[in-house]
């Protein structure tokens, strides 16, 4: 019999024994008998014992700050377990009350974040990997496709990508020094991928399932209602709030909200509609034979289809990640309110220009064409992946710039970024432009090799770039 199945059965038996001794009373902090035997709670306990336990065991071998931050990870998963139990007994709250409901988990993440502030310690990469990974637990705040965050499974994967940069640094630094650190880094990754991701995929792929017909989460006590009703207060700032109330209220109404606004405006909903006569119906039209001509087919193929690309986005998600998607022909895109803890992800944009006015942690340009990106400083790296004809200009400093599977890329470096490490793979037509010696000097253009020669010498292959010269 499978070992994991045996462990799950033993866990269920132990819970039944505890319930029999307690006479069905609560077996934990607010944990009811039904919650103790719920398959999703049992699976979450298995996740904690198997994956969180591995991270804790590795951290105990290291001690110090690594153990301290690991305890916060353990505490955050415990807080999420308590929330999952409450969700099964609670009606879905409003967005303003949801932040208060999720406050126990948010408080743990805030306490853990303070460990990364101030002077950098020798274990800064461990701290950042752990703290950034806790953002994945915010999948529990998913409230629908219009809530401003990705689906739960995608959110867990994207959140781990933010912390993987620091986790990989731990692996590289201690690969030949201390196997305990390597074990800790691998265990931390497996906690989220596949651990938390597979759990969410199995039990909550569409988000939390709230109870029906039970008492809803109570909002904080309010003062007696005055003679004239006042507008509701804005929700408290939290890791789980994706944007400020002012930003959302200033946006034009769209989607189904716009439809209901038109209906409630009192105007006749059929204004501007034309009556369809019998001769206008498709089944009665002689010019519709059901055969598509070659010209009509070409016209359909050549016309752009924005429905497949999705709606354009330029928004800050979860307070950590700027998302710029499906921007077509926009030359004046600007991100001016950013900090070094945030990342920027640019996807599916074409014939547009984005300016990032401030220092950010990471920039990724993915599947873009004829796209220009101008940024000041980046803490980790700027990555260009699966693009065609892009221009990237660094006006400050960037430790690393990587270009992968890209055709046509112009990199403009400033004097502060001349020591940048540039990595290319499966890419062609990569040119790097550097400033001249004087203020009025022309930019110097350097083409990076895309062809290499491999020669077998002295028992190994020697690889050299191929340079071409021509008149």
Topology readout:
Blueprint: H1 3-22, H2 33-36, H3 39-62, H4 64-87, H5 95-101, H6 103-113, H7 124-133, H8 152-174, H9 179-203, H10 245-250, H11 256-264, H12 294-302, H13 306-309, E1 313-317, E2 321-325, E3 333-335, E4 343-347, E5 350-366, E6 369-385, E7 388-394, E8 400-404, E9 407-412, E10 421-425, E11 428-434, E12 444-447, E13 452-457, E14 460-465
Parallel strand pairs: 2-4, 3-5, 4-5, 5-6, 6-7, 6-8, 7-9, 8-10, 9-11
Antiparallel strand pairs: 1-2, 11-12, 13-14
Helix pairs in contact: 3-4, 3-9, 4-6, 4-7, 7-8, 8-9
Descriptive account of the structure:
- The protein is of the alpha/beta class and 471 residues long.
- It contains 13 helices and 14 strands.
- The strands form 2 sheets. Strands 1, 2, 3, 4, 5, 6, 7, 8, 9, 10, 11 and 12 form a 12-stranded mixed sheet that branches. A two-stranded antiparallel ribbon has the order 13-14.
- A hairpin with a 3-residue loop joins strand 1 and strand 2.
- The chain is globular and about 70 Å long.
- Belongs to the CAP family.
- One of its GO terms (cellular component) is cytoplasm.
- Residues 238-250 have a biased composition (Low complexity).
